[in-house]
Design a protein that fits this description.
By secondary structure, the protein is mainly α. The chain is built from 8 helices and no strands. Helix 5 packs parallel to helix 7.
């Protein structure tokens, strides 16, 4: 899935732009106590020089254009059976800061909202497929994408998704306790690190929506101690 791979590349380039240590080299003592001679940039640590920064931005812009050109009519990207692919792509576009892509984002968000299930999860059922609709994985990524929009109208959807995610945590008495798998519906005693990563990242990033939860409802969270033990 090209859109899937490009999304990760785009996110990586964005992190490079934000966190690049270009210019952070410092003289370190070499063997024998003498200082090593190295050429350092005058650029402050953690920043890019103007030329490289422009090149990175141009790369991000080209990647965003490539992604947006491949949005389907229903607002989804890649395989619409798995809304996480749309969520991942939207996260990349949102973080690029491209305000001219508002229509693309709106269509993608509308598609994700159409995948909200009665149980609070954000996924599509895929009958006959092992793992079904990968409900945990899709829900985690989609709730983060909706949260990244900063639109308060999605607060209730995210709150319900958090309840779904918390209920998906394995809390049995075996080696899978504390983790997350692809789905809970099949009752398979199986969890893995990829699903656990996305699940806990989603719960962490969206924690602020609990402040808006009605006082009559209990705040939702996962058992972080068991998650740490599992990891």
């Amino acid at each position: 899935m090209k859109a899937f791979r490009t999304m990760f590349l785009l996110s990586g380039v964005g992190l490079l732009l934000l966190n690049s240590p270009v210019g952070s080299l410092a003289d370190e003592p070499a063997a024998g106590g003498q200082k090593a001679v190295m050429t350092t940039s005058t650029q402050p640590a953690g920043t890019l020089d103007t030329s490289l920064g422009n090149e990175v931005k141009a790369s991000i812009d080209r990647a965003v254009d490539w992604l947006c050109a491949r949005q389907k009519e229903d607002g989804s990207f890649s395989d619409s059976n798995f809304p996480a692919l749309t969520g991942l792509t939207l996260q990349a576009i949102l973080k690029s800061g491209r305000t001219d892509k508002a229509d693309v984002i709106a269509k993608g968000v509308k598609f994700i909202a159409s995948c909200v299930q009665p149980d609070g999860g954000i996924y599509r059922t895929v009958p006959g497929r092992k793992g079904g609709g990968l409900s945990n994985y899709n829900t985690a990524i989609c709730m983060m994408a909706l949260h990244d929009t900063g639109d308060p109208s999605f607060t209730k959807i995210i709150q319900d998704a958090r309840k779904f995610m918390a209920g998906a945590q394995s809390l049995g008495d075996d080696e899978y306790k504390g983790g997350f798998g692809y789905d809970k519906q099949t009752q398979r005693p199986y969890t893995d690190l990829m699903n656990t990563y996305y699940s806990v990242e989603a719960m962490k990033q969206t924690a602020d929506v609990e402040d808006s939860r009605p006082k009559t409802e209990k705040r939702v969270d996962i058992d972080w101690n068991e998650t740490i033990k599992f990891i």
